[in-house]
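Customer escalation, tier 2.

The customer says the design service returned an amino acid string that "doesn't look like it belongs to this structure." They asked us to rerun it and document both sides in this ticket. The original structure tokens are below, unchanged.
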């Protein structure tokens, strides 16, 4: 076969070529090009069609101090072969450019352990962070090896490491949109996946979901799973932002094998916005550890209240959440001002950290509520502070599920939340709490007062909430459901393991 300048130019301007350049870059390896004019003439002297595949095996072996591997190539005729670094095994197939890359470490088998990389945007303890931690913890053992990739520092990293699990810091994985850092995060994660291959990449949240799924797709990870804890856009957002994030979510949905939704309203929202195919969707409720969240005695409750300067007769409203605009803290403070006019002994406890801390403190001072509102900051021992509440509230404008309400239900507390996201899945009207319209200060104040003014109703709602939680929302149920998804996808992809 005669190679011409134009034919070479066509090859080097193809998308496959640039994909190869990207892979060469992230693996830090040199490249050698080998052109193999594999043509086979028929009996009549004509070339066979390109669908005729010839197997041309090339085997190389190379040893580094800690790595050893070989190459195997199989490709249709008339194609150039790039040689990636010597610690990769690459199988070229007729359709597609690279169908599989597997890196091998000496003395380590990939046939006995399912390797999972969880990717989370920020190392903070939030609902999605706790879900990720419980999933990793529940699957820890001889069969699974889980690693968390997230931004460095923060309580979530500390929590994961305290329980003996590995963390991969990704400094460029920041929450707000940042084209440069986002690109660096894709490169960093792809490089990590090529150097330390895994069988499953499981992403969480919108930002990590886009960056992580793209990285996993580039690294040819066999199974890609994404959990939707909530979407980055909602009806109150500006139009341009809704359009941008909706389209990004639609694109990323094509890069994964399964999308896990933590509530039914999130599934309905995704279908309405045409994000993902229904066959890819599965609903798995968030779970908590019932043994950690349990009702406390009145004596324990009094002792904990004394620690925070709360009296036995105080009517305590509590919220546990990040301090940012989507959670409705400002609305709650204004509703609390209404409550104080009717119930002088009412107190408000705000647990959490975030960008709105100072502005919320300023609002409390302006409304002359400084002596009645307590800001605790971040607290690791959530069950202890929940024990001081008479009612837990979450007046969010949008919400994936509302884990804090689930935790409060486990503690035997009545709950009040807004009709957004997955909150209606948790609260049954007049059974274990009340639902109110998002942004409605008057409704919120009225619902909280109903509970504070009727202790027998509050106790009845608390019992109903704990019963519902233990029946439907345990961490073990969540973990086993996720494990089932993993195993089904691995079997579908033909990935098997030694017993």
């Amino acid at each position: 076969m005669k190679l011409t300048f134009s034919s070479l130019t066509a090859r080097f301007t193809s998308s496959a070529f640039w994909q190869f350049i990207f892979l060469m870059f992230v693996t830090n390896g040199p490249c050698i090009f080998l052109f193999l004019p594999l043509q086979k003439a028929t009996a009549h002297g004509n070339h066979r069609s390109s669908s005729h595949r010839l197997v041309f095996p090339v085997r190389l072996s190379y040893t580094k101090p800690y790595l050893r591997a070989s190459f195997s190539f199989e490709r249709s005729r008339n194609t150039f072969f790039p040689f990636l670094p010597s610690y990769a095994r690459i199988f070229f197939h007729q359709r597609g450019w690279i169908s599989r890359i597997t890196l091998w470490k000496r003395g380590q088998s990939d046939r006995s352990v399912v390797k999972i990389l969880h990717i989370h945007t920020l190392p903070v303890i939030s609902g999605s962070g706790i879900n990720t931690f419980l999933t990793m913890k529940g699957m820890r053992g001889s069969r699974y090896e889980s690693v968390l990739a997230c931004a460095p520092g923060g309580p979530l990293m500390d929590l994961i490491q305290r329980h003996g699990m590995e963390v991969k810091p990704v400094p460029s994985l920041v929450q707000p949109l940042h084209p440069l850092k986002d690109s660096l995060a894709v490169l960093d994660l792809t490089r990590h996946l090529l150097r330390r291959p895994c069988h499953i990449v499981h992403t969480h949240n919108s930002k990590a979901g886009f960056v992580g799924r793209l990285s996993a797709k580039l690294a040819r990870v066999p199974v890609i799973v994404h959990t939707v804890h909530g979407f980055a856009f909602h009806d109150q957002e500006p139009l341009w932002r809704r359009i941008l994030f909706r389209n990004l979510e639609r694109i990323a949905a094509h890069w994964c094998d399964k999308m896990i939704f933590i509530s039914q309203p999130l599934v309905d929202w995704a279908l309405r916005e045409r994000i993902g195919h229904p066959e890819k969707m599965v609903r798995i409720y968030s779970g908590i550890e019932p043994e950690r969240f349990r009702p406390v005695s009145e004596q324990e409750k009094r002792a904990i209240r004394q620690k925070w300067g709360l009296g036995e007769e105080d009517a305590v409203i509590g919220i546990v959440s990040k301090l940012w605009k989507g959670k409705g803290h400002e609305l709650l403070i204004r509703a609390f001002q209404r409550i104080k006019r009717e119930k002088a002994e009412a107190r408000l406890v705000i647990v959490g950290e975030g960008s709105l801390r100072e502005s919320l403190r300023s609002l409390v001072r302006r409304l002359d509520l400084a002596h009645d509102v307590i800001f605790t900051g971040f607290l690791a021992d959530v069950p202890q502070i929940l024990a001081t509440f008479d009612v837990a509230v979450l007046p969010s404008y949008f919400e994936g599920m509302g884990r804090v309400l689930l935790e409060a239900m486990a503690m035997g507390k009545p709950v009040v939340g807004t009709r957004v996201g997955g909150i209606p899945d948790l609260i049954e009207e007049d059974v274990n709490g009340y639902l109110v319209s998002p942004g409605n200060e008057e409704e919120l104040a009225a619902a909280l007062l109903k509970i504070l003014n009727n202790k027998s109703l509050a106790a009845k709602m608390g019992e109903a909430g704990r019963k519902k939680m233990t029946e439907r929302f345990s961490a073990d149920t969540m973990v086993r459901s996720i494990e089932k998804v993993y195993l089904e996808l691995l079997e579908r992809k033909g990935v098997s393991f030694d017993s």
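Tier 2 assessment: The sequence is consistent with the input. The longest strand covers residues 144-150. The CA atoms of residues 1 and 336 lie 82 Å apart. Sent an explanation to the customer and offered a walkthrough call.
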